[in-house]
Amino acid sequence: MSEDDVAARLAVHEAVCAERWKQANDRLGRIEMVLAAIVLLLLVGEGSVVAVLRRMLGG
Asked: What is the DSSP string of the chain?
């Protein structure tokens, strides 16, 4: 295997890995948004943490 072959294979490998990391990063971003929405709903939704604290504190 020549030096040019190794360089070409390495370049292809790096491009494939870069694309996979981009896709994984995009998925993580979407997961973070969903989790943030869930937390927000838990904090301010009906039966939320705020409502439970108000009931506990007699408010």
From this structure: --HHHHHHHHHHHHHHHHHHHHHHHHHHHHHHHHHHHHHHHHHHSTT-HHHHHHHHHT-
